[in-house]
UniProtKB/TrEMBL annotation:
MF (Gene Ontology): FAD binding; monooxygenase activity; oxidoreductase activity, acting on paired donors, with incorporation or reduction of molecular oxygen
UniProt xrefs under Gene3D superfamilies: FAD/NAD(P)-binding domain
Stretches assigned to the FAD-binding domain: 3-345
SUPFAM superfamilies: FAD/NAD(P)-binding domain (SSF51905)
Residue ranges of coiled coil: none
Protein's recorded name: Ubiquinone biosynthesis hydroxylase
Transferase among keywords: no
Cofactors (names): FAD
Superkingdom, natural source: Bacteria
Species lineage: Bacteria, Pseudomonadati, Pseudomonadota, Betaproteobacteria, Candidatus Kinetoplastidibacterium
Family: Belongs to the UbiH/COQ6 family.
One annotated GO biological process: ubiquinone biosynthetic process
Associated pathway: Cofactor biosynthesis; ubiquinone biosynthesis
Length: 383
């Protein structure tokens, strides 16, 4: 039987950063998860798992020494954002200088963050069991390979299908949006000028996020959250036909705002979209990231919230009194209280935005387009 103070179950970005933040403060942490990181890619090769990283997440990643390892050439600062409603004239144009910040967010590949976190964890010599959690009973975790690990606190960072959460019998509420996100990198004829773009309409929600330019053109990441009708059309055709179909739709939706758009990724990834929520804590356990909540990606906030969980939980655990155990209910309740407030806000805002922008009622459509134009004028007048 292995013994440690804290187990972190799961090695996504949230689990890795939780383990790193605690280990840097000399806490006894063991990671239980398969150890896999994408190889570095070069020049015109970009992964399609892309995140918009907020200022607070950047600060946390800086604090734990991860941000500075990411090659500067793989980071794109978002200095503006154009948001369109169904009517092309209804749009909101935001810029970083209006908000008095140097950038609204950073766009970065998931693999770059993961590689940087793993490097720091290896340099620190953090204990890592390359296995998966498959059982739990009375403070002992059992892995698929038959290892038994006891700890004061088990942190579930094992994603939306968290095994640990299920083993603890923690209930979860799930709302299925009946939508799928299609993800691929694209090349645009026109320059994105470090702006992000979003189109809301009957086609769903299309987001184009700026990426570093390729040797042969301007690159963006496409996240198109769309309905089952479009997915059904794609299911009946081969990958080349899918690409042509999506490119045609993209050019229609964007009204060629960025000129002609072409998919450059070999594959188009798909994600089911759900709104999920469960308790942040259970007896001797805390949950972080998608293991505790999952949102619609329209606001690009899922990982940012997860990093907020990681930072908050680590700060609370590191502030414990010498006589307190890491699984102490007072510490766990404090974590749950702080994060519930933060996550509830984002949970309701993204769901409400989704309701407003997916509605087909003419009055709501009119109101949302008018609202976007109104906000745009208000922002312009304030400049
Ligand atoms: C289309 C789309 C676009 C998005 N864009 C953004 C964005 O721009 N910005 C943003 O902030 N968020 C975004 N998100 C949300 C973001 O992807 C998630 O919130 C984030 O990946 C959650 O990270 P995590 O570490 O909690 O979970 P995950 O990334 O799911 O990691 C969980 C880890 O646990 C491991 N694991 C699973 N089961 C076990 C087990 N039994 N034992 C051990 N290990 C296990 C897995 O292998 C995995 O490594 C987006 C989501 C979607 C669907």
């Amino acid at each position: 039987m292995n013994r440690t103070d804290i187990v972190v179950c799961g090695a996504g970005i949230v689990g890795l950063s939780t383990a790193l933040a605690l280990s840097q403060k000399k806490q006894n942490v063991t990671i239980i998860a398969h150890r896999y990181v994408d190889k570095p890619t070069y020049n015109d090769e970009y992964g399609s798992r892309i995140y918009a990283i907020s200022a607070s997440s950047q600060k946390f990643l800086e604090r734990i020494g991860c941000w500075s390892n990411i090659p500067i050439g793989r980071l794109t600062a978002v200095i503006g954002m154009e948001i369109y409603g169904d009517a092309y004239s209804s749009m909101l144009d935001l810029s970083s200088w209006q908000s008095s910040v140097s950038q609204l967010s950073w766009i970065v590949e998931a693999s770059e963050i993961e590689r940087s976190l793993v490097k720091e964890l290896i340099d620190l010599g953090v204990s890592w069991i390359d296995d998966r959690c498959s059982g739990y009973s009375d403070g002992i975790m059992i892995t698929e390979g038959g290892k038994r690990i006891s700890a004061d606190l088990f942190i579930g960072a094992d994603g939306s299908r968290s095994t640990l959460r299920d083993l603890a019998g923690v209930a979860r509420s799930v709302k299925d949006y009946n939508e799928i996100s299609l993800i691929a990198n694209i090349c645009a004829h026109g320059s994105h000028r470090s702006k992000a773009f979003q189109w809301f309409g009957e086609h769903g929600i299309l987001a184009l996020l700026p990426l570093p330019n390729l040797s042969f053109g301007n690159q963006l990441s496409m996240v198109w959250s769309t309905n089952q009708d479009i997915i059904n059309c794609l299911n009946d055709i081969n990958i080349d036909q899918q690409k042509s179909y999506i490119e045609k739709k993209l050019n229609e939706i964007t009204c060629q705002r960025l000129g002609c758009l072409k998919i450059v990724s070999n594959e188009i990834s798909r994600f089911n979209l759900t709104l999920e929520r469960s308790s942040f804590i259970a007896h001797g356990m805390a949950f972080v990231g998608d293991a505790a909540h999952r949102l619609h990606p329209l606001a690009g906030q899922g990982l940012n919230l997860g990093l907020g969980d990681a930072e908050s939980l680590c700060d609370i655990l590191l502030s414990k009194a010498p006589n307190q155990n890491f699984g102490d209910i007072e510490l766990l309740n404090k974590y749950s209280r702080i994060r519930s407030r933060q996550v509830s806000r984002m949970y309701f805002v993204t769901d409400a935005l989704h309701k407003i922008f997916s509605s087909r009622f003419p009055l709501i459509k009119l109101a949302r387009n008018y609202g976007l134009s109104f906000l745009n004028k208000a922002f312009s007048l304030n400049q």
